[in-house]
Design brief:
Radius of gyration: 14 Å
Helix content: 25-40%
Number of strands: 6
CATH topology: Beta-Lactamase
Distance between the termini: 38 Å
Bound molecules: methionine sulfoxide
CATH superfamily: GAF domain
Structural class: alpha+beta
Strand content: 25-35%
Shape: globular
Order of helices and strands: HHEEEHEEEH
CATH class: Alpha Beta
Length: 154
């Protein structure tokens, strides 16, 4: 199955899984689990925005850093720019925060509240170089948009 086919199959399942669930932690936890199980990535999870930093949220994978300042690392950069950041090689990204030395590539997708403010980021790490591309961006942004609408943030 291609990556696109996997996403096409997964997306309706995720939408079904989170439908009617408004608790942010519960929804983020199940979304992280479903994505992680489907793709077998190294780390799949969320950081939530609080003041000027991101705080570790529900995730699957090895332990990770608790806090990331706005503008720092890939996660803080995606938050500050308010856009998805794809990093094919983390060693080439200035300021990358290495929670795990095995992480090689990464994608971070902002999640918004209904007013359009970034309330969380979805962070996915791979042990391989160049894992993430436009296909991931398209589908993960769709997923983030579904989360934005379903969950009651804050
Ligand atoms: N690498 C991320 C930090 C989070 S961990 O990968 C889970 C970053 O540079 O923002």
């Amino acid at each position: 199955m291609t990556k696109q086919e996997k996403y096409e199959e997964l997306l309706p399942q995720v939408l079904g899984l989170i439908e009617g669930e408004t608790n942010a932690v519960s929804v983020m936890a199940n979304v992280a689990a479903m994505l992680h199980d489907t793709f077998g990535w190294w780390w799949t999870g969320f950081y939530t925005a609080s003041g000027d930093q991101l705080e570790l949220g529900p995730f699957q994978g090895p332990v990770a850093c608790y806090r990331i300042k706005r503008g720092r690392g890939v996660c803080g950069t995606a938050w500050e720019r308010n856009e998805t950041v794809i990093v094919p090689d983390v060693e080439q990204f200035p300021g990358h925060i290495a929670c795990s030395s095995l992480s090689r590539s990464e994608i971070v997708v902002p999640v918004h509240d209904p007013q359009g403010a970034v309330v969380a980021v979805l962070d996915i790490d791979s042990k391989d170089l160049g894992t993430f591309d436009e296909t991931d961006r398209i589908y993960l942004e769709k997923l983030a948009s579904a989360l934005s609408k379903t969950v009651v943030w804050g």
